Amino acid sequence: MADTELELQARVDLAAALRWASRLGFGEGVCNHFSMEVPDTPGRFLINPQGRHWSEVMPDDLVAVDAHGRKLSGRYNVEPTAFFIHGCIHRGKPTARCVLHTHMPYATTLTVIQNGRLEWISQNALKFYGRVAYDDHYNGLALDEAEGDRMCSQLGHADVLFLANHGLIVTGQNIATAFDDLYYLERACMLQVLGTTTGRALATVPEAIAAKTGRQMAGESAQAELHFEALKRLLDRDEPGWRG
Fold first, then answer.
1. Taking a C-beta distance cutoff of 8 angstroms, is the pair 154, 134 a contact?
2. Which residue spans within 85-241 are E strands per DSSP?
3. With contact defined as beta carbons under 8 Å apart, do 113 and 189 qualify?
4. What mean pLDDT, rounded, does the chain reach?
5. What is the rounded distance in angstroms from the CA atom of residue 52 to the CA atom of residue 74?
6. What is the residue extent of each domain of the chain?
7. Is the pTM of this model over 0.85?
8. Each residue of 78-97: pLDDT tens digit?
9. Which CATH number is 5-227's, of 3.40.225.10, 3.30.930.10, 3.30.479.30, 3.30.1330.60?
């Protein structure tokens, strides 16, 4: 169980992210994982448990693990592939205090087409200019640390990793900025996928303007915090008792 106020708040925030991801259709069955480091508690992470649907996760359902995926507390287990991905990224990329892995539909669509790339065709996409990496080699389920390390190396200094034939990883320094990125990434990919269905050429933003806009949008942490607080208010309104 949580034993600090910071962990209690982290549990509420991570549960909120999972529930909203489910609302938005980002989840897939009881698969995929969100994890975050407990603030001011290096080496202690929270992650969603195996077998619980994102829409039903309560703060006290979350499992506390160390950087190697060993359970520290919690009544549930963690899905086997989860910390082979998350642990390696948390250990290998110190700024990745929050790691969100989904198979959300529009973004994943870009991973299942030949040479799929996020195109600079919308303002939403420009939020990610210079922040995206691609793993073009699908290697089966991530069932060992070597596969997690390989993904982490492909991520490098980026915040977003498109996984070929698989899905997405979004990382951030906190849950609000990471979830804000997750939301706008799917919106950007949705516009791109829908745009291609028209049969018309996509209108690419010139590189210099794309770079400028990416810089303008960098560091919008205050807006991300406002977004995330609004989402929690909506959960309070629509799902009383979700905080436990």
1. yes
2. 98-102, 132-135, 160-163, 167-172
3. no
4. 94
5. 13
6. 5-227
7. yes
8. 988 787 889 899 999 989 99
9. 3.40.225.10
